[in-house]
Amino acid sequence: MSAPSKPSEAMIFYDIAMRPPIASTCCSPNPWKSRLALNFKNIAYSTTWVPLPNVAEVRCALGVDACRKFSDGTNFYTLPILIDPNTDSKIGDSFDIAVYLEAKYPNSGSGNLFPPQNLDFVFNPDSALLVPLSEQRESEHDEYARFNTYVDAAFTAHTSLMAYILPFDPATAEASKAEFIRRAGVKSWDDFEVKGEKREEIKESFRLMLGDLGKLFLRDTSGPFLLGEQASYADLIVGGWLRMMRVTLPENEWEEARGWHGGIFGRLYDGLKKYAEVK
Question: Which InterPro entries does the UniProt entry name for this protein (predicted)?
């Protein structure tokens, strides 16, 4: 039996609620990867917005295991989660969501999320990352899985540029900040603010990293994507992080960053807008 082109019943997608209007401020990169993938595959879904302090409770209530752990072995409960009532499936990792959508609905939307390509980008952080990365698991899309891990590491290593102006919902801001303070082992939220020479140093490191990543986009300049005019999940991986940058960097720094390296990442951000509808 051939795979259905589309699911008959809309899926339920769980994302982290930020400050109203939520559709303009949602900025968690992994949920964004999944939203872009859902829209790319033209899948009907609705978003359930979860306040950040309630993520662990909601994930546990849905019976979806944590897919990451902190360095001390405790579970890191986060989103996204996708529920597909057509197959009674619950998927709780952004990469697994993309793999699931392509496997179950290969004929839907804008094509194959995982076309063959060489994704030879490597980044190894100099120090431990505050937020744990998704674990690599063997799959038929290992090239993409490795790329996802390295891109996550590269951007996570520079999130000190973005954390301080995260658009927390005022109703839960204090609880959310307290959790970040606890994880980082700092004394107050002001410790997350990076200014002056230190900020310029991190920005330069970020610019150089994006230059290395940008080399992949120069192999085919017929369009904004790695494969030119054809988008793939690799573009969506980077696009999820660009969405975070757009919301959490000061406006002038966002404009500066989207113009780095000949505007590669500004063009990618703009090219992915057609898949960025918040439903």
Answer: Glutathione-S-Trfase_C_sf (IPR036282), Glutathione_S-Trfase_N (IPR004045), GST_UstS-like_C (IPR054416), Thioredoxin-like_sf (IPR036249)
| Residue 47 DSSP label | E
Buried b (16+ CB within 10 A) or exposed e, 223-253: bbbbbeebbbbbbbbbbbbbbbbebbbeeeb
For 104, residues 6+ apart whose C-beta sits below 8 A from its C-beta are 3, 4, 7, 84, 87
Domain architecture of the chain: domains with CATH: 11-275 (3.40.30.10)
C-alpha distance from residue 65 to each of 13, 56, 69, 77, 90 (Å): 16, 10, 11, 8, 10
State pTM to two decimals: 0.96
Q: How far is CA 72 from CA 52, 68, 132, in A?
A: 21, 11, 11
Provide DSSP, 117-141.
---------SS--SSPPPPP---TT
Count other C-beta atoms under 10 Å from residue 102's C-beta. 22
Q: Are the CB atoms for 141 and 99 separated by under 8 Å?
A: yes
**Dist. CA 200–CA 198, nearest whole Å:** 5
